[in-house]
């Protein structure tokens, strides 16, 4: 009996110690943000025509879930109370510097410095303190919405854009708004859900709960989204296959669905494969119409 | 972003069919007990090399009679992720050959059960192995074998964009060295033969983008 109790205790210890939630996140810590001077992997570079004046880049901190997170606002903050703002939620890797070209693309839609863009580093990413968690993603993005609201932004002028892992907070906070309700949703390379990912890789009908406690389910949450929705996905995405995105759009029943399946594009290369001009025009049309 | 997605690799630890050697190809002697360990898994690309996913499990068997052995396998890798995975089965010798070039035949119905300790989700996958083994050396118990392993998945998958294959076959080729006390088996397997192996972060090594090869080793002590 004694050995049985020890055995059960050891199993209990093991089962509580090795879940896979943390493997979703791949943050890099930073000592300072470099933006254009960042020399790490950004997947693509932009020429000088996309440059942003230093006086239009504001790096600051917000409080989220008891942690200090870093955020950037690109644009004239005096226009937040009257103009459209794009809130960009980046993917699971690295930090804001790695997504800086993407931020600049969005800031220059249509013409130079046309739109205000806000982006952030989730808890544990870049210089943000804490450890990434699913709840933390939602809290962090909502903290940005609170800041934007304090600057005068209203829901009807907020557009939220999620890339890869960032599609989780983008979808969640559009489907279940906390502070502001985004008026439009853009998802680039979304994954469907933890169950979908598990069954896609494992080939059997196993639930994700066999491995992790993540509850992310974009394909389910999208059912609540009635706002206009733009989906972009690389046809050759070998990380989050396009069938993930197909599962998401299949469940969307809102007012306007725009689909861009990008032939030849992989997970992180939709903008360059599409062409920066074409990509910008597609986003612009969605934002303005 | 890509290759740090270790979770995806870890998913494979438990998810592919046939994640151990064929438990018992040849039944034990009557009232004989065997206890052993299994290592190995499907071959995946990892940091430039092809490695077997390191499954591990513990198996025990008992010879009910000379042609029927009951066995149970406990998956030690699975438990580390919070999932209790157990397979229970019997192997029945249908035909015993007296000639080296004619195979003996056995069949093993198995049920693979999994229960997670967090949400309480449960799965049970039936499996049937049909084994052909050649005891090629007179007076020596060594044998090589081929097995057809059939997994059945009757549960629906989430969302209809994922293919649902109820029948998932695997084919194994192995060799077992035996002496009075020990049994050593090396097995190669081709599994998930009707599953596309592309389009996910895990790169399997199969044929024409289908399935994956696997490599396994088991060591048993007989009592």
Descriptive account of the structure:
The complex is a heterodimer of chains A (289) and B (223). Chain A has helices at residues 2-15, 100-107, 134-150, 167-175, 194-202, 218-221, 242-250, 270-274, 276-288, and strands spanning 26-27, 57-64, 67-74, 85-89, 93-94, 116-120, 158-163, 184-188, 229-234, 257-262. With 289 residues, chain A is α/β, with parallel strands linked by helices. In chain A, α7 links the parallel β9 and β10 (257-262). The longest helix of chain A is centred in the middle third of the chain and has 17 residues, at 134-150. The termini of chain A are far apart. Chain B has 223 residues and is mostly beta strands. Chain B has a ten-stranded antiparallel beta barrel. At the A-B interface, α1, β5, α5 and α7 of A face α1 and α2 of B.
Give the SSE map.
The complex is a heterodimer of chains A (289) and B (223).
Chain A: H1 2-15, E1 26-27, E2 57-64, E3 67-74, E4 85-89, E5 93-94, H2 100-107, E6 116-120, H3 134-150, E7 158-163, H4 167-175, E8 184-188, H5 194-202, H6 218-221, E9 229-234, H7 242-250, E10 257-262, H8 270-274, H9 276-288
Parallel strand pairs in A: 1-5, 4-6, 4-7, 7-8, 8-9, 9-10
Antiparallel strand pairs in A: 2-3, 3-6
Helix pairs in contact in A: 3-4
Chain B: H1 6-15, E1 33-46, E2 49-52, E3 55-65, E4 68-75, H2 76-80, E5 83-95, E6 104-116, E7 122-134, E8 143-152, E9 167-178, E10 182-196, E11 210-222
Antiparallel strand pairs in B: 1-2, 1-3, 1-11, 3-4, 4-5, 5-6, 6-7, 7-8, 8-9, 9-10, 10-11
Largest interchain contact: A-B, 47 and 49 residues
Radius of gyration of chain A: 20 Å
Strand coverage percent of chain A: 15-25%
The low-confidence parts of chain A are: 12-17
SS class of chain B? mainly beta
Q: Order of strands across the biggest sheet of chain B?
A: 1-3-4-5-6-7-8-9-10-11
In total, how many beta strands of chain A?
Answer: 10
Mean model confidence by pLDDT of chain A: 91
**Over all CA atoms, what is the radius of gyration of chain B?**
18 Å
